[in-house]
Amino acid sequence: MKNVVLLLALLLVGLPEADACVGKTLYIGVVDSTEGLLLSEILSTIVNERTGTTVKTRYYKNTRALYDAISARQVDILVENTTTALRIIDKPADSDLQKTYETVKSMYEKNKGLVWLKPFGFLKGGDGPGHSYTAPVLKVEVLNNFPALPRVVGKLAGTINDETYEKLIKSVEAGEKAQKVARAFLKSKKLI
């Protein structure tokens, strides 16, 4: 009997975290592009598969429209690169990518209520010249409502190198469904 009571107590303690994302809806916002389509599919698939959370993607014409949607609370997660982020916070680029990432991460959280997670791993992408980190970015309040989310999305950190990025983008541009490409990638990395 003691074992049954102990087991029930342990289950009840663990349930809040396990149930933290289930039954809720998250909105990913991206600029309408091949990269946005692919990365939003990767994010939505891993979040849905690992947490049971419904994930919907909203596409925007440009960065301004995306950030307007964030301000209007229509987007919970976005995919951003450090080059664009520097323009948004009006800071100069630094030749040290890690320093640039840390600057953007700090300024976004302090001034915009947005938390940068670790980068996907590739250095290409975005709309600016040169190399740039691209990473998932969450609204601070999302962290409170979805406490398991950073751990789940964090599994993507460093998983997409430049070569993989190019292959994934080319597959989508060649007409393969982004959802299929995303799912195959996640399975190949044993993330789903």
Structural account:
The model is unreliable at 3-20 (pLDDT under 50). The protein has 192 residues and is of the alpha/beta class. The protein is built from 9 helices and 5 strands. A 5-stranded mixed β-sheet has the order 2-1-3-5-4. The chain has one domain: Periplasmic binding protein-like II (D-Maltodextrin-Binding Protein, domain 2).
What's the short story on this structure?
The chain is of the alpha/beta class and 192 residues long. The chain contains nine helices and five strands. InterPro entries: ABC_Gly_betaine_transp_sub-bd.
What would the keywords be for this entry?
single chain; 192 residues; alpha/beta; D-Maltodextrin-Binding Protein, domain 2; 5-stranded mixed sheet; 9 helices; globular; disordered N terminus
From the 3D structure, determine the CATH topology.
Answer: D-Maltodextrin-Binding Protein, domain 2
Number of helices: 9
Radius of gyration: 18 Å
Q: What is the SS-derived class?
A: alpha/beta
Question: Which regions are unreliable across 5 or more consecutive residues at pLDDT < 50?
Answer: 3-20
CATH homologous superfamily grouping: Periplasmic binding protein-like II
- The second-level CATH architecture is 3-Layer(aba) Sandwich
Q: Number of DSSP strands? A: 5
Count of discrete structural domains? 1
Helicity, in percent? 40-55%
* Percent of sequence in beta strands: 5-15%
What summary fits the major beta sheet? Answer: 5 strands, mixed
Provide the succession of SSEs.
Answer: HEHEHEHHEEHHHH
Strand order of the largest sheet: 2-1-3-5-4
N-to-C CA distance: 37 Å
